Request: fold
Amino acid sequence: VDNYETLYQTVIKDMPLQKVLDSGWFRIDAGPFRAALLNTIKHWSLMFKQHLVDHVTDSLNSLRDFIQQTNSGLSKPVPEGEYNALVECMGHLGAVRLRIPETDIMFEPLKNTIDLLKTYQQDMSEDVHQLLEELPERWANTKKIASTVKQDVAPLQATEVNLLRRRSATFDVKQHEFREQFRVEAPFRFKDDAPYDSLDQWNGKISAMEADMSEICKSAELFEVSLPDYRQLKACRREVCLLKTLWDRVLLVRTSFSEWTKTLWREINVEQLDMDVKKFAKDIRGLDKEMRAWDVFGGLDSSVKNMVTSLRAVGELQNPAIRERHWQQLMQATQVKFVMSEETNLNDLLQLNLHNFEDEVRGIVDKATKELNMEKVISEMESTWSQMEFEHEKHLRTGVP
Reply:
């Protein structure tokens, strides 16, 4: 505020009301600019002053409403056995306890703020001055009432504390049992048939347990009771979220593989598929390390690695040297029969479990390549010799041709 007020006075002093800038050939009337500048400076100054006014007014009104509400709540009787009435009373006591550190030191700064505003000719209303005079005493009285009520309800509070501790202990046992059941029945296995249905069910069960935990924690806060962390339930929540992420990745990989397997043998782009699979492998390595001990992670990782190996074998089998006899040799090696035709697709080849016979595939392809080279040499020899002509003469002495 001081900066804007000083700037305002500086503009008034250094920029006269009627100011014309004359450079000989160019003249500017600075009056409108001066007026606009002064309005802008004053606007910001008033905005900060209004903020201080609102701060004082809102603080006092908020405390007044709080005192009225709290005094009214603490004046209600709390019969023995009336849990709701006791909870309401403890809520008011807790609110007073939380507000004490802030409220005990707020009055002097508010007085200083009002004095500061007076120096800027910004007077507060009479209601604000009256509240500032009355509220310290009313606040002290509210704290006394809270102290008295706290002593009065102490026996009832002690009874509820004991009940709450027993309830907390029962819930602690329940969450350990729930944790064990979760570890056994949740979809941690890669061959789970309906993982998302299971995840939905467990999410609902965990949410119900969390609602019970929240209610216990809320009561513990009211009655000032320390509770365990309930780590088992929190671990279930964390793991069900991790499972959802992992199964989403499994679904993505399975869907992609399913689409690839429909590709015809001659149209398989091994290089592109290999790049996509390696991206899957990279994404899997980036998942949370806690997942790596789970069977579903191991199954996903193995599926991707097997596909990498199989695609490498498929790429080798696309060698033009491969003949029908070599496919027969491959079927003998894998103990799987299939018919190689124009309709053969990637799925047919994957049925051979090529990832388990990488060395055999490489040996067959090497053999086929050598045989193709031999065929070329023999073909060249046949072509050469077929074009040659030989002449012969009779032997002079024997007459044998």
